[in-house]
């Protein structure tokens, strides 16, 4: 796996070290400022180092943010290692419990599709040009009179095949040779 930033390890180390340092400095300044505030109650003068708390709190917060970014990868890896087995067990449990139901549902859907397609699709039929009897699509001759069902009469001009009883070409409209049978 290629790393996007080749200085990633260095950045993470800096975030960790600087973050912890800022937390320590911020905590010390905050303690000094709060201690100065409470010590001023004993005397009549105002607190001298109370301003340190106003610097220490933001520094401590910045240190917390930097430290959390520095340790974010380690925390994410730990979380993934903790949650992955639980997720895997849950998925396997659910898959095992629903396997038969999914098979039953898939079988029912398949049967419904097969039944629906054969019942709803009307059988295609071809009409005989001689006796008007319906025939199967793949039949070559009429089952009633024996006449050919396909286009067998060629046009002398364009050589397009036409119905056997056609008087004019379906393609170019020219009259077809030979008497039309009725």
Mind explaining what this structure looks like?
The structure is a single chain. The protein is mostly helical and 182 residues long. Among the domains are: 8-75; 126-177, no CATH class. The protein contains 3 helices and 4 strands. A two-stranded antiparallel ribbon has the order 1-2. It has a two-stranded antiparallel ribbon with strand order 3-4. The longest helix has 49 residues, at 72-120.
Strand content: 5-15%
Can you count the helices?
A: 3
Mean pLDDT equals 85
What is the number of beta strands?
4
> Largest sheet at a glance?
2 strands, antiparallel
Query: Which structural class best describes the helix and strand composition?
Result: mainly alpha
Sketch the topology as an H/E string, one letter per element.
HHHEEEE
- Stretches with pLDDT under 50, minimum 5 residues: none
Helix content: 55-70%
Largest sheet, order of strands side by side? 1-2
- C-alpha-based Rg, rounded: 45 Å
Q: What is the global morphology?
A: rod-shaped
